[in-house]
Amino acid sequence: MRHTPYLLMKPIEIAILRNTMNKKKIFVSHSGRQHVHQLLYGLQQHQVAYHFFTSFWYKASQFPFRLLSYLPKKISQKIIAQFKKRSYDLLNDANISIFPWFEFVREVADKIVPYSTAEYFLFWRDRLHDRWAASKLNNNYSVVVGYEECCLHTFRKAKKLGLKTVLDLAQIHYKEIEVISKQFPVFSEIYANQKLRSRINTIKEEELALADHIICLSSFAKDSLLKHGIPASKIEVMNLGFDPQKFIPKSNYAVDSQKKIKLVFAGTLTKRKGLDQLFRLLDDFPNEIELCIVGAVADAGDLFNKYKSRITWHQYLEQEDMNKVFNDSDVFVFPSYLDSWAMVVVEAMACGLPVIVSDNTGSKDTVTAACGEIIPAGNYEKLKEKIHYICLNKNDIATKGEAAKTQVMQYTWQKYYHQIASFFDKIQSSK
Q1: Among 273, 406, 420, 277, residue whose Cα is nearest residue 350
Q2: Which of 34, 362, 381, 382 would suit a FRET pair with 82, their CA atoms being 20 to 30 Å apart?
Q3: Can you tell me the distance from the alpha carbon of 4 to that of 101, in angstroms, rounded to the nearest whole number?
Q4: pLDDT exceeds cutoff 80 at 319
Q5: For residue 6, is pLDDT > 50?
Q6: Which residues contact 262 (CB under 8 A, 6 or more apart)?
Q7: What's the pLDDT score for residue 3?
Q8: What number of CA atoms fall less than 13 Å from residue 418's CA on the CB side?
Q9: Domains in the chain, please, with CATH?
Q10: What one-character DSSP code corresponds to residue 242?
Q11: What is the DSSP secondary structure assignment for residue 32, as one 8-state letter?
Q12: Nearest to 27 by CA among 158, 132, 124
């Protein structure tokens, strides 16, 4: 771990360091990944002591992962490539404890059982993880950070020990999800298991109540919390960021008037992200646009298979290759019905792309009229109107793309790390 020389630190960094040297550790628990590695790295960068408890985290030197060395090389390399998606090289492995056994079972089941059954495996993975994490909690910690659906028992124990609780909320308020799901028919398939949804929502309700502080990712998420009765004093908005070293802006905006406009979308191929809207564009603009999709196929497999022959598709790309795809595209389109943030919007803007996003996308916070468009979720006619305009005004792509590069510099990971460190310094210092 690198440390900034004391004499080179900014005053705020010195204050944070002085205030954290004698404080207890922060207890962080998450059964999955989401953006937790970035929160941890923000703590680590600012010398805030923490320990992370999770279900699965790839550690090459630890059992059972070292057993992979006994497998044929081609097989082990393929498995390791998948495992590395649940790791982060910049974190100190000594600060991470894992309870991976049920997660192994769930990962296998996820490949062979129907989606409705896989939901139950996720539910029980979270239940088992929560109880395991709670068993590790003691008075050596001062603050407990949990994630939705998997921190109820941990928060209950934290309250008994007199510890402060922070819910790092990756989604919007669950009641607002219910409201949105009733607005759009696409959710009828995704949230078909209402009995399980009710059990999950009961857990979410108590987690929200037990949290002393709630970190959310956007104004969209904050508004949903306020709408459903969460006090503003409990809420902190911290936008996720991008790495300027990995997402390099394009320099060439030449758009041939005779060639098709290149639209790009990135994200898991789930109907929740508005793929039905996106694919309809291919029917309405067959001679004007081409579409590139980056993401693994989830519940939108039927839509994907229908249009697969008409798109360019990448199941998964490393950030360097994603950068190349963005640089080779003209406009990023993200018509999601529901996304608390959507980091890919920020990454596309960093590459110099104008963006079109729905108003149910948290990263609309980054979008201004100068660099993109915000359209009503589910309003295909408005999306179609924006694409039609771009087809007739190709020169606007360069103007809005340049504006996007400037606008997005307010949303780097370094800014997020600083916010995280300052926030935890504040609550550890308060009585």
Answers
A1: 406
A2: 362
A3: 38
A4: yes
A5: no
A6: 289, 290, 292, 328, 329, 330, 331
A7: 47
A8: 14
A9: 6-241+413-429 (3.40.50.2000), 261-410 (3.40.50.2000)
A10: B
A11: S
A12: 158
pLDDT, position 115: 61
Helices (H), 28-173: 36-45, 73-83, 101-112, 115-136, 152-161
Which residue in 240, 235, 233, 234 sits closest to 217, CA to CA? 240
**For the purposes of burial, counting CB atoms within 10 Å of the CB of 278, is it exposed (0-12), middle (13-18) or buried (19 or more)?**
buried
User: Per residue in 293-312, pLDDT tens?
Assistant: 999 998 899 999 999 999 99
| pTM as predicted | 0.89
Cβ-Cβ contacts under 8 Å for 403 (sequence gap 6 or more): 354, 368, 370, 371
Overall residue count recorded for the chain in this entry: 431
User: Locate tokens 């839509």: which residue?
Assistant: 303
CA torsion angle 103 243 397 400 (round to 10): 120
Both tokens of residue 157? 């124990």
For tokens 């998997």, name the residue.
150
Instruction: For residue 424, give both structure tokens.
Output: 């935890």
254, burial (CB in 10 Å: exposed 0-12, middle 13-18, buried 19+): exposed
Q: Under 8 Å CB-to-CB from 77, ≥6 apart: which residues? A: none
In the structure encoding, which two tokens stand for residue 238, read together?
């911290």
Long-range contacts of range 223-228, CB-CB < 8 Å, 24 or more positions apart?
A: 224/172, 224/173, 224/175, 224/176, 225/169, 225/172, 225/173, 227/173, 227/176, 228/173, 228/175, 228/176
